[in-house]
Design goal:
Elements (H helix, E strand, L loop, with lengths): L4 E5 L2 E7 L5 E2 L1 H8 L6 E2 L2 E5 L2 E9 L1 E3 H5 L5 H20 L14 E4 L4 E5 L3 E2 L7 H11 L7 H8 L10 H12 L9 E5 L4 E5 L4 E4 L7 E2 L10 E6 L2 E6 L7 E2 L2 E2 L5 E3 L5 E4 L2 E6 L7
Parallel strand pairs: 4-9, 13-14
Antiparallel strand pairs: 1-2, 2-6, 3-10, 5-6, 7-8, 8-9, 11-12, 11-21, 13-15, 15-16, 16-19, 17-18, 17-20, 20-21
Helix pairs in contact: 3-6, 5-6
Length: about 290
């Protein structure tokens, strides 16, 4: 369990952890989180100083999960909290991000009042830690929630899997919660690239989305002298993803075919893209590529 220091100032909360000798920053996971791969994970700031490395979260307009549950929220809101936390855990696992560094103590899970969504803390640290007690987290939430009399039957039906001895299947439990409450987590069409050369997933959540060599000048940068500053761009056109070579010096190839510079081409599921020494593969459904 990570030792944390908290400080309140107005509507701002600062949470700090100083790395010990056995802990190191997991830069790959830090990079994925900074790129917004999982928006519900609060980005951490890393400070290097004379006395070591300090990691810090700064949250605004957030209250802790126990505070939120104690506010007398209806069962629908409680169910949404469960679904959002399940979703965050599933997203970590699907992106190859270790959930051992996901802080699952309820007091360090927050409800963002402004955005009306759950935010969780993730510490991108290489350390020897036990698998987090996910079942214990949800049991703790169940114990802290005060349901109304007319919600009793649905509450116990919905939380029944927590009392069973077998391993908690989050996907099946998510389906049960949705079935009991009529609430479902909206799943939008998701597109992604797999950076084959670096073995890294890139979620496409904004358009246009550009890839090139220079950080800051494009959405995703690669270290390759054969890649131009802004090499190619992905665009959304009438519900389809198109690719455009942005006048690159060495060209962009899709399935071995060299693209005409400046012209847009529709991408198909599992098309391979090559720029310089970098290979990518495009997927139309992120869930089906794991």
């Amino acid at each position: 369990m990570i030792q944390l220091k908290t400080k309140h100032k107005g509507n701002q909360l600062t949470i700090t952890h100083k790395l010990n000798q056995k802990e190191q920053v997991a830069h790959l996971e830090q990079s994925l989180i900074e790129q917004g791969e999982i928006p519900e994970l609060q980005p951490v700031t890393i400070h290097n100083g004379l006395f070591g490395i300090r990691m810090q979260f700064i949250l605004s307009d957030c209250i802790s999960l126990p505070e939120y549950l104690a506010a007398g929220i209806p069962l629908e809101q409680f169910s949404k909290c469960l679904l959002e936390i399940i979703h965050i855990i599933q997203e970590c696992e699907s992106h190859g991000i270790s959930i051992s560094n996901l802080e699952v103590r309820p007091e360090y899970i927050y409800y963002d009042v402004a955005r009306q969504k759950i935010r969780m803390l993730y510490w991108p640290i290489h350390s020897v830690k036990e698998y987090p007690d996910i079942r214990g987290l949800f049991q703790n939430m169940m114990d802290q929630y005060a349901y109304r009399n007319d919600e009793r039957d649905m509450f116990f039906r919905m939380t029944g899997p927590l009392g069973k001895r077998e391993k908690l299947d989050l996907l099946e439990w998510e389906k049960m919660i949705s079935l009991c409450t009529g609430i479902s987590r909206t799943r939008q069409q998701e597109y992604c690239l797999y950076h084959i050369t670096k073995q890294r997933w890139i979620s496409l959540k904004q358009y246009p989305f550009s890839i090139g060599r220079q950080p800051g000048a494009c959405n995703y940068a690669v270290d390759d002298s054969l890649v131009s500053r802004c090499h190619f761009t992905l665009l959304m056109r009438n519900g389809q993803i198109c690719i455009r070579d942005d006048n690159s010096a060495n060209g962009t190839r899709v399935e071995g075919h060299l693209l005409e510079r400046g012209r847009e081409y529709i991408l198909q599921n599992k098309n391979q893209i090559v720029i310089g020494k970098q290979r990518f593969q495009f997927f139309t459904e992120i869930q089906n590529t794991r």
